[in-house]
Amino acid sequence: MRPEPLDRSRVRFRPLAERANKVQIERDAVPLDVEPENLSELAWKVVRETAARILAARAEDRPVMLAFGAHSIKNGLGPLLAHLIRKGWVTHLATNGAAIIHDWEFAYQGASSEDVRGGVARGEFGNWQETGFYINLAINTGAWQGRGYGESVGAFISNEGLVLPSEDQLHREVRECLSSDPAQAAAAADLLALIRCFSLPPGAMSVPHRWKRFSLQAAAFELGVPLTGHPMFGHDIIYNHPMNCGACIGRAAQRDFLTFAGAVSRLEGGVYLSIGSAVMSPMVFEKSFSMAQNLALQRGEPIRNHFITVVDLAESRWDWSKGEPPESSPDYYIRFCKSFSRMGGELRYASADNRDFLLALAATLEGRA
């Protein structure tokens, strides 16, 4: 007998306004001029070398990619990251699904970060109507429009809403594209099914985002800087909501993966920073780099001259600039460092809080440190 999947349409969702939040973005956003704390001498050395490499890369119009985990947003660093792209020091941002959610909740209601333990015990963790409905709808619509995961949500925040097609328009698109562009026909069919399921009227849907000035996704969208989202299915609270559509998530996330890989393919002479992302960043990077190197070798132009900076809280006694430690060393099992050490180029590792490292990096790039 086949197991029955859970019927999430029966889950009760509460208004987001009823949720207690740990972080208020107006109170907790990190000012750009705050002095970093608790950086070791080694971490400062990595900051200075990374800043020098970034400036050299940008002088030669080479890419600077920055991948980060959700805590960078939850800890109020969105405005600081936006500052780095406005200055042109960072040309590509990449993050996971949780950071996408925190950034949207800050833009929409000015607060984020719920009590997981208590919420699970009450059966309410993640079951918030606006977060599940709006983020999924933005991605579902963006996937039909050919947008990526991060771009879809960034556009939704920046435009403070979206425009939904009519059922007739989507129905015609399914018929007309079925032979010439079946992938687009499928995207239109998926959006049509959701519009019918939720009885959504066509036209403009206004959704105010009173705090969008704090949104990194909105800033990236408005500046035309790629912010790619790299979710894992079931990892984020938006999967609880029936507006969630696996096919739409897949389309948008696949586009972002290939956009990310495209940036990696141009990384010769560039810089890659991985800040507080022990799983998403190294895993997405290594597959992207393998594809990029495959194509580069076909051209006879291997990617060799790239600089990688990794920042995390894990302590390491190994000098990762010297390559991979032996299996007898405990540092061999710092998995993300080991992954990046196998990616060629030069690697530097700093054990530091992401807040302190990014503040120090911005100050150094501006000549304030």
Helix-strand layout with pairing:
Blueprint: E1 23-24, H1 25-28, H2 41-59, E2 64-68, H3 70-74, H4 78-86, E3 92-95, H5 97-109, E4 111-112, H6 116-121, H7 129-145, H8 149-159, E5 161-164, H9 167-180, H10 182-197, E6 203-206, H11 216-223, E7 227-229, H12 246-264, E8 271-275, H13 280-299, E9 307-312, H14 335-341, E10 346-351, H15 354-365
Parallel strand pairs: 2-3, 2-8, 3-7, 8-9, 9-10
Antiparallel strand pairs: 1-4, 5-6
Q: Would you mind describing this structure in some detail?
A:
The chain is of the alpha/beta class and 369 residues long. The radius of gyration is 21 Å and the shape is globular. The mean pLDDT is 95. It has 15 helices and ten strands. The protein has helices at residues 25-28, 41-59, 70-74, 78-86, 97-109, 116-121, 129-145, 149-159, 167-180, 182-197, 216-223, 246-264, 280-299, 335-341, 354-365, and strands at 23-24, 64-68, 92-95, 111-112, 161-164, 203-206, 227-229, 271-275, 307-312, 346-351. The longest helix has 20 residues, at 280-299. Strands 7-3-2-8-9-10 form a six-stranded parallel β-sheet, with helices on both faces. The protein has a two-stranded antiparallel sheet with strand order 1-4. 49% of the residues lie in helices and 11% in strands.
In short:
By secondary structure, the protein is of the alpha/beta class. The chain has helices at residues 25-28, 41-59, 70-74, 78-86, 97-109, 116-121, 129-145, 149-159, 167-180, 182-197, 216-223, 246-264, 280-299, 335-341, 354-365; strands at 23-24, 64-68, 92-95, 111-112, 161-164, 203-206, 227-229, 271-275, 307-312, 346-351.
